[in-house]
Amino acid sequence: MSRIHTLLLIYEKPMLKSSTRVAALMLSAALSGASTIASAQAPVQRLVPSQTILPAPLDNTVPDQARLVQLAANGRHYRDGTYTGPSVDAYYGLVQVQANIQGGRLISVEVLQYPSDRRTSRAINTQALPILESEVISAQSTRVDTVTGATLTSAAYLRSMGEALHQAGG
Question: Average pLDDT for residues 111-129, to the nearest whole number?
């Protein structure tokens, strides 16, 4: 289940050069986690993590802007390895996750512990944990929504994952 986020930006500073506006637009979109951008100054474009589309340089500042936009569009880059987050209390039990980083990107998550001693906890976590894993991998961060009906598990999962990603350099 993947969501596409669109960021619509309107620039009210007409004195900015076209290349500056587009670079700022793409940087804002990449930093906000948007996968699609649109504005009055630029057509709708899909942000692709491995490439950034910029207009031809109009002045000397564009190469610096291009590098900045490229860094933002590529998203976070983590150190390769396996990083374990702390055990976090989710009221009905502890949640602990392990982040697997390869090629500078989060590729998988292993849940080391989660509340499973009660039938209700097992039912909730069987549905919530795969959703959280998918969303965190897609976002390459913990800036995702909590799962409805699994608020405590979501909060604990995201805290543990946040620390694991912090260890990875994020």
Answer: 96
> What pTM was estimated for this model as a whole?
0.58
23: Cα within 13 Å, side-chain hemisphere: 21
Alpha-carbon distance 126 to 120, whole Å?
10
In tens, the pLDDT along 20-57 reads 555 555 555 555 555 545 444 444 444 444 434 444 34
Residue identified by tokens 């569009």 is 73
Domains and CATH numbers, the chain: 6-73 (no CATH), 81-167 (3.90.1010.20)
Closest CA to 167 of 87, 88, 84: 84
Round to whole Å and give the CA distance between 80 and 16.
Answer: 40
Residue 153 has pLDDT above 60, yes or no: yes
**The dihedral formed by the CA atoms of 51, 57, 60 and 63, expressed in degrees to the nearest 10:** 10
- Residues with Cβ within 8 Å of 67's Cβ and at least 6 positions away in sequence, in order, are none
Exposure string for 145-154, b = 16+ CB within 10 A, e = fewer: ebbeebebbb
